[in-house]
Amino acid sequence: MISTDDLARLYPDVDPVESGDFERVVRIKEEAFGRRVHERMLPSSEVLAQRLFAQGQELADLRRHLKHYHDLVINLQNHLHDLSASDQTQALLLKQLDQFLEDGLAEVLGRSDANDNLAILDDVLKIMSAHVIVRPSGHEFFVEGHDSLLKAGVRAGLMLNYGCGNGNCGLCKARVVSGEVRQVQPCDYVLSESEKQQGYTLLCSHTAVSDVVLETLEASGPADIPEQRIVAQVKSIAPVSGQASDTLLLHLQTPRSNRLRFLAGQSLTLGLAGSQGDFSATYPVASCPCDDRNLLFHIHRDAGDSFAQRLFSGAVRSGEAISLWGPWGDFVLRQTASHAASQPLLFLACDDGFAPVKSLIEHATAIEATDSITLYWMATRPDGHYLANQCRAWAEALDEFRYVPLFADDIASCGRQMVQAVCTDHSTAGSGGDLAACDVYLAGPGDFVDAVKREFSVLGVPLSRLCAMVV
Ligand code: FES
């Protein structure tokens, strides 16, 4: 309810862009309860009615049970009254037992438990969202609002199997072990009779009515993600930080019915066709796979990259088509039996190496992969920290996140300086010290990546936990 102009007048010293406050405010607005209730959290009226009906049944069952127990206690009390005791001791004992029942009933009926509020909140949340457990992985997520099971699972960072996302291919087939699902989108794919009897459903076109247990396999690494070809549309293209920036933020959007399945940290080949010839180049995706329609790329001005030159020339505008192939690469989060690695995560980025690292950080925070993330970002050019405000906003908003900006005069020394900065925060004594307990993700120019690996080897840090990508 407060305009930004008023805020700027009241707090003239605050620079919302540089401080990262702008992103923080956007995040707060996104997560604001009222907005979420209206736009995201409320399920369709049919699903709401089914959930309320199920809760009504549960309540009726509880009432019936409660009445039985109450009747039982009253009968017991009457029975006690009818008993005649032959001696005084027995009569006293019967009287005490009667009083005990009387007091107990009075206490139970008169008590208002402080935990009632929590139980009520829990019941309300059960109506607003459904809890899903996936077997055999044990991963869990909540389905909110009108979301399909697939959308809610992908948003929660799960690597569920799917193809079209539109009810046509059948790749999102999963077995419902328990709970109730309901179709929310039309689908052309037809399940066989035997699949229906076994409880199979299409995740992309069904939502959860009650809490659900699903049985399905999830991708465990890049080998499980098929190569895809999709034509996307340019949603926007603009300098990342001011008109003089040498980095463009390219936002592509896939068709609603043809989303791109990829893992955080992977790359895509982008292709442009036109009267001036064909241009293509491969770039890391700079956004999280939890939004598989909106893909972001950081394109640096590079004289040797004709695709980038084309974008910087202004020849490509919003609405234009760009072909996508991929995804490629194995610069992805390590997986363990639990959701992902729980070790501290260190991200060492140099210049544009930030793009795949951003995707990894967003994914790691979406799945709550660890309680310790540190980003060291080395800049070797004036606009090297082109999204520093985003990093500051993470540091502000996430307890587990730390941001360390670094500067180097040239690419030759930046690897050594990066390792020095990391070693200032971590011991390397013994077989790599506490650095050996971290998962390290390294991305940047080839010379930088080689130098960091070399320096770590000299220090005796094992490279087995290091994942690198040349950008
Ligand atoms: S993803 Fe193709 S049918 Fe569900």
Distinctive features:
alpha/beta; Ubiquitin-like (UB roll); 5-stranded mixed sheet; 18 strands; about 40% helix; about 25% strand; binds FE2/S2 (inorganic) cluster
Describe this structure in words.
This protein has 471 residues and is an alpha/beta fold. The chain has helices at residues 4-10, 16-19, 21-31, 33-41, 45-82, 88-110, 116-128, 149-155, 193-198, 306-312, 354-366, 388-397, 411-425, 429-432, 446-458, and strands at residues 129-135, 140-144, 173-178, 181-183, 200-202, 206-208, 212-215, 228-239, 247-253, 267-272, 279-284, 294-300, 321-328, 345-350, 373-379, 401-407, 439-444, 466-470. Strand 17 (439-444), helix 15 (446-458) and strand 18 (466-470) form a beta-alpha-beta unit. Helix 5 (45-82) packs antiparallel against helix 6 and helix 5 (45-82) packs antiparallel against helix 7. Mean pLDDT is 85; it is low at 337-341. Helices cover 38% and strands 23% of the residues. It contains 15 helices and 18 strands. It folds into five domains: 12-37, no CATH class; 45-107; 129-218, Beta-grasp domain (Ubiquitin-like (UB roll), Roll); 226-328, Translation factors (Elongation Factor Tu (Ef-tu), domain 3); 345-470, Rossmann fold. The chain has a six-stranded antiparallel β-sheet with strand order 11-10-13-8-9-12, covered by helices on one side. A five-stranded mixed β-sheet has the order 2-1-7-3-5. Strands 16-15-14-17-18 form a five-stranded parallel β-sheet, with helices on both faces. Bound molecules: FE2/S2 (inorganic) cluster. Residues 162-165, 167-172, 189, 202, 204 line the site of FE2/S2 (inorganic) cluster.
